[in-house]
Amino acid sequence: MAVAALDTEFANTLSTSLGGAEISGLTRLSGGASRETSRFVADGRPLVVQRQRAGDVRDMMIEARVVAAAGEAGVPVPNLLAAEQNDDGSCFMVVEAIDGETIARKIQRDDEYAEARAVIPAQLGTALAAVHRIEPVTGLESVDQIEHYTTVMDELVESGAGGPQPMLELVRRWLIDHRPPPVDPVVVHGDFRLGNLIVDRNGLSAVIDWELAHLGDPMEDLGWLCVKAWRFGQPPPVGGLGEYEQLFEAYEAAAGVRVDPDVVRWWEVMGTWKWAVMCSLQASVHLTGSVRSHELAAIGRRVCESEHDLFLALEGRW
Fold first, then answer.
1. pLDDT surpassing 90 at residue 159
2. How far apart are CA 251 and CA 311, in angstroms?
3. What is the per-residue pLDDT across 99-135, written as a single tens digit (0 to 9) for each?
4. Is the Cα dihedral 272, 274, 276, 279 positive or negative?
5. What does DSSP assign to residue 291?
6. How high is the pLDDT of residue 31?
7. Is residue 47 within 8 Å of residue 96, measured between CB atoms?
8. Residue in 28, 193, 195 with CA at minimum distance from that of residue 127
9. Angle, CA 77 vertex, CA 74 and CA 190 arms, to 5°
C-alpha cells in the first residue's frame, strides 16, 4: 500500500478516535525502529501522535496510563487525548502539541533560553518530586538494573557481538559493593534528561517520552539527569545547566524528603555504566549486520568515553 494511502487510512482512524474530528496536516517528525512520531491538526487543534509498531517489546498502553497518571499528579505533561491498541499489537497515543525546544545544545547555549537556564535546575527538582508522587498503574514493573545489564553484557560476549570489557566489569563490582539500602519503590520516569524535556523561554514546559517508566528508587531519576553524557559537553552537573544543590534543594522542598548526595552519586555511576552497556548493545546491532547504521556505529564509539567518565567517577574527579 502506498505511503499516501497509509496516511489517509490512519487519518481516518485518528478521526474516529477523536470523535469524528477533521484531520489535516499529518506530518511525520521522526521514525525509529519501534515507533514514529507525527504532528497533525484535529478540528484546528495541533496534536501529536506516536505510533508503535507490532512486535515491539514495550507496551505503549502502559505508557499512556502513566502519562495520564502523571498529569493527575501535577507533572507538566501533554494532555493525553486518545490511546488505542490494534488487533496486531500495534498501538498509537495522541497528546496535545506543546510548543518549545528539546534539543540540548539550543537550550544550553541560545540567547532565547538564557532566562530559562537560570530556573530550570530547580524546576526539574520540583517536577521530579511530582513524578515520584504518581500513583502506580497496572503493568509497571521493578527491574534489578545491575542484573539486567549484566545479562546484556554476557549475551553480547556469548553471541560474538562483543568482547570482554574489564572496565565495565570493575564498575559492576563497585556498584554491587556500594549498592544503597533498598527503599519503597515509586514510579520512576527512567529517562529524565535533556532531549526528553520541552523547554520554552520560561523554563520547563513538559516532560515527555515515558516509555521507560518503571518502579524503582526515586534517586535513580536524579542520578540519570546528572550523568555526564546528558550534560552534552557543558560543565554543570545537572544537564549542563546547574549545580547539584539547586536540584536537591528544590526536590527536597517539593517532596518533603532529604536527598542523600552519596545515593545520587551511586545512581550517577550506575547510569554511566548502563549507558556504556547500551552503547555496546547499539553498536552490536550495526556490527552484526542486523541494521547497518552510521549512527549506531558512532554510538558504539562512545563506550570508551563512558569508560573514561567511570574512571573519573570512581576517583571522585568528575
1. no
2. 29
3. 999 999 999 999 999 999 999 999 999 999 999 999 9
4. negative
5. S
6. 54
7. yes
8. 193
9. 95
- Nearest in space to 242 (alpha carbons), one of 129, 117, 113: 117
**Going from the N-terminus, what domains does the chain have, and what CATH number goes with each?**
3-96 (3.30.200.20), 99-142+186-259 (3.90.1200.10), 144-184+262-318 (no CATH)
Residue reference for cell 552484526? 288
* Predicted model pTM: 0.93
- The three grid cell numbers given for residue 280, joined into one nine-digit string: 555496546
Query: d(Cα 40, Cα 24) in Å, to the nearest integer?
Result: 6
**Cα–Cα distance list, 206 to 43, 67, 181, 200 (Å):** 23, 11, 32, 9
Which residues does 23 contact at the CB level (< 8 Å), separation at least 6?
11, 12, 14, 15, 40, 41, 42
Which residues contact residue 318 at a Cβ distance below 8 angstroms, ignoring those fewer than 6 apart?
A: 228, 309, 312
Query: For residues 93, 97, 100 and 102, what is the CA-based torsion angle, rounded to 10 degrees?
Result: 20
CB neighbourhood size of 29 (10 A): 11
pLDDT (tens digit, 9 = 90+) per residue, 72-89?
999 999 999 999 998 888
Half-sphere exposure of 38 (CA within 13 A, CB side): 20
- Give the Cβ contact number of residue 292 at 10 Å: 11
pLDDT at 39 over 70: yes
If pLDDT is split at 50, 70 and 90, which confidence band does 185 have? very high
pLDDT at res. 2: 44
Query: What separation in angstroms does the CA of 317 have from each of 59, 152, 172, 305, 312?
Result: 40, 28, 19, 15, 5
